[in-house]
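Lab manual, section 2.4: Encoding a predicted structure.

Procedure: take the sequence of the chain (193 residues), apply the prediction step described in section 2.3, and record the output as structure tokens. A sample record is shown.
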Amino acid sequence: MELVFATNNAHKLQEITAMTGKFFTIKSLQDIHCFDEIPETGETLEENALQKARYVYEKFGCNCFADDTGLEIEALDGAPGVYTARFAGEGCSFDDNIEKTLSLMQGKANRTAEFRTVIACIIDGEEYLFEGGVYGTIATHKMGDEGFGYDPIFVPVGYEESFAQMPMSEKNKISHRARAFKEFMMFLHEITD
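Recorded output:
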């Protein structure tokens, strides 16, 4: 089965491709010549993931999936949440988002956070949703050079190191995206067996 992953994020594409194995072919937006900036105007992760998947399915007619991920920090009343990718403003970098988060977290004793990923999949016009989450804490400073996004400041429960200090193979066993993707893959195996 071929599926288009509706993302322009090369890091996400690399993570997901590493998890799929040989059973499915994952194509990128570039593979189908989609160079559009796909809108993300939903107020929830579910809405954004569905919006991206619907855009690709309706415009290109491909079976596809999209994800949206949010970092929800208790001390910030669930922020950045749906604004995780653009927390420091439109066109911001990963570092800008991290700096803003660390600044807002200064002096806060409660550093509990959850990373959540929602995957929306459209196959032959039918829509499906899958979710994964991982709890952890927000570090007081950046740790590690691997991964992307907030990985250098997110320390999953039961670990001393941040996602950015882990090899991808380790992160892919426990991450929010890995958990959502595992549910998604189980579903795909069921419908293709």
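Check your result against the sample. The domain at 2-192 is CATH 3.90.950.10 (Maf protein).
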